[in-house]
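Interim report, section 4.2 (structural modelling).
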Amino acid sequence: MSNATTVEGAAEHHEEAGKAREAFRAVTRDVAWVAEAPKPHKAWLAALGISVLMLGIGVVSIYVLVTTGIGVWGNSNTVGWAWDITNFVWWIGIGHAGTLISAVLFLTRQSWRVSINRAAEAMTIFAVMCALLFPLLHTGRPWFAWWMLPHPNDMGMWPQFRSPLMWDVFAVSTYATTSILFWYMGLVPDLATFRDRFAAKGDKLRAIIYGVLALGWRGSARNWHRYERAYLILAGLATPLVFSVHSVVSFDFATSQLPGWHTTIFPPYFVAGAIFSGFAMVLTLMLPLRHLFNLQHIIKESHVEAMCKIMLATGMMVGLAYGTELFIAWYSGNLYEKFAFANRALGPFWWSYWAMVSCNVLAPQFFWIKKVRQSPIIIFVLCIFINIGMWFERFVIIATSLARSFLPANWSYYLPTKWDVGLFIGTLGLFFTLFLLFFRYVPVIAIAEVKGAMPEAHAGGSKDKH
Amino acid sequence: MPRFTFPEWTETLKKWISLLVMGAPVYLVALVAYGVTPEAIRIGYQPDQPVPYSHALHAGELGMDCRYCHSTVERAAEAAIPPASVCMNCHATVKRESDALQPIRAAYAENQPVRWTRVNDVPDYVYFDHSAHVNATIGCESCHGRVDQMVKVFQAKSLTMEWCLDCHRNPEPHLRKHEALTAMGYEPGKDEGAAVLKANNVNPPTNCSTCHR
Amino acid sequence: MANTHHDEHHDDHEPVVYPDGALYGVLAEYDTPGELMDAARKVRDAGYTEFDCYSPFPVHGMDEAMGIKRTILPLIVFGGGVTGLLGGIFLQWWMNAYDWPWNIAGKPTWSIPANVPIAFEATILFSVFAAFFGMWILNKLPQVWHPFFRSDRFARVTDDAFILGIEAKDRRFDHAATTKLLTDAGAIAIEDVHYEGDPARKTMPKWIIAFIVGSTAFALIPFAIAAKARNSHSNQPHIHLFPDMDFQPKFKSDTAIDLFADGRANRGEITGTVARGSLNADDTFYRGIENGAWTTGFPKQLEINDALVKRGQNRYNIYCSSCHGFDGRGSGSVPQRVQAAGGAWQARNLVETGGVSVSMPNGQLFNTITNGFNTMMGYAQQIPHADRWAIVLYVRALQRSQNANLDDVPPNQRGSIR
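Predicted structure of the assembly:
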């Protein structure tokens, strides 16, 4: 490795090229400093402390649930699905924005996605992990969850593939797997960046960890060629997948006979709601972190605005679905359907219905105003409302329909217990804990993709073209 | 200190790790298939009993019918574990001084049960009726094995749900003529199962609530 | 740049300096992605094949400049997708329609619509696996070691550097000519990269080998345990990892309960009560007494026929033959064994002409079965009433047959006996 020579005279536009290189270095620096800072930010530590505390509440709730039984929840014979499945669907919905941003916006060449796709994908994975906890625990015997996977067993039984709950198992696990692989694949070049930075600093431990995770990536053009092809293919595969997952989740309800569930509009209605809530959660997370870690020049105002517009659109789709449900209930002439929807809006759960409508349909209307779309604080508040509203949407669908099913003798009311709430807080804690750890230790912005999207990255300015 | 780079031997290590990654699933499947199966876990359970009662002697050498002691098997869900009085049918006279039989004599004298340990047990959520099976002429041997050769009884069959269902889905190979119900080592003749199936109208249900009531 | 690797064993001494190994290749850094691309085109035009460009992000147009052929990855993914689709359909068909046709609410065991979601998800899943793993395998990654990583310049590829590397193994490689080509293409820096000279960096450390050998040996232990479990009996029940409802707080027949002094879950009749249908008022049927004396006939409830004799034979063989013998002559397996052991115990000969069994009225025979006789214990709890009568009937038949003479045989069959 001797003979390092600098060739003189071949650098007329050296200065310009130096500026471009400095811009690339700046991107690396801006992302890497979070992980390289010897001491974490105080706000980060405080947030992690709170998150771990919430996670602890969840652990206690799970312990009580598993050692005692599902009876500690507020579920009853009538309302057999309630808080738990509400949370499952809510988390799965939140998990949709990540893949949507990385896949659908990639295919539609929305270059602004590169600033947030990494974080949104991470959010997807963590949200799906939280979501999976609920059906898993609701089975009552989570240690038998593997029974749902087709395998030869000493019961002589196979899974029943005509059940939408089985479809759900396949859809959600495929989604989780795909999201993780997609995310990891995107991470590899950036982990290589971290590897080289820590190696240069003499931090051998981190150099080894990031080095192993980077799989020996060395930015070779031959590797990039297949990498980009694989990325495009994965985006193409993830796009139908993301639409199928929430459709399948909606089948859990739509294929049943219960008034309020037995509806053909469920798949698009659920998918729109999922994207809606997913973007709200992305902004809920990214707005404070963007401020805290000075990422405004990467996550630009225009990016935030684009997301607000998507929320406005999907929010109105959800509103249209609410209206359609009411119209069809009336138009069908079906006594039970009519009752189910009248009961939703005016029955004992009226408060949840109107919370849903005001948060999901009315709140996003503020996004029509440009000033609102440019004010991070107002956006943050509206996103919180949307998160709450989308939670209520699932609650309204699940609890109100079950509490007033066909037989009046079975009617009841649903109230969660402290263990219901505890588990939900726990999943929030798990989600934020993982997200904060991700933010500190993993390249939070797709460095290579951001560089690739910069004007300096284009090879067009070469001096002699062939 | 030089900048850290991975040494060249990591290429050798990579081969080992890829072997591990490819081998681990094979290893795990093989281990589960070999070690976490009823053959390894359930079959062969041979608990100690309060009295060293030998089925090999009574059912084998003496040729006593199973039903001599397990007299309710044709009439009830349970094949009765005989009370001490049944033992005393013979042992009031035979081997009346034996130390091994002391618990039986004591139980008989004091009208206390002998606490045998159950060998063949199904979980409590399984409903099983001996009379239904015996009257459809499933031989004792089908589920209990060659009891006539067991000095100390052990669990001979897996008693798993798959094992139950195998027979419920296709009972024919396990049916025998009624005279051979308690015979051990009996080989049903050709077409014997089919004939019994037809004659007794054996049609075992396979829905969940057959056993899980 | 000389390599100074610290050998752990020589810490107190001068660090051992190994000379560099053979030349691996030449690196040339370029100012911009565009210049890198131009250089790549020149290198390619010069006929080199063992070269590559390295950049922090994919440079568009580079594939064409370097002459990279389109990857076969899409074909692999297609293969994965087809496998997933067919696999998903086959899985569902085989499991729910073929191996065990599962009747769910009378719906067809096999219909396409209900099986679309899982077939779809399996298609996606296998395609994703094919794309992800296929890409890494085609890229020959992971490979954490590479000679180029030794160059500090090369380490900047993941940050801001645009580098072209030509490997020495290329058949057109000539150090001077290659260096000149790269320089002429506008390189701002040229650097030779050599293999490492330190042999310790090439051979795997002993402790890793020891670990591999050790863990492989350790991995065999579970198999040994399983082999033992398969081939031996145990007096311990299997471990109920998750007891769930294997043991429920309910009591089945012949189970134990601490609530009662005798520990039996089976409770007998309560003194002074009669269970419904168990009054047993009929003296003849239940006790063999008719008009205050042993009955000589059979209770009117029983129809005396072939079937009852057969039933009696069956029950006799179960309950009586062990002592009295199948022929009723008292030479059952139990007395035989007692006598063989030097004992003097003899079961009664039931068929002896003039014996007490022959002269007993039916009712007394019945009573003997119920309550016993001399050393014989009663069989009331083992044999239901009707079966006891069947045995009485069969004993009568035995007595007849065991003492029969030729006159008892139908005339047309006498010939076959002699």
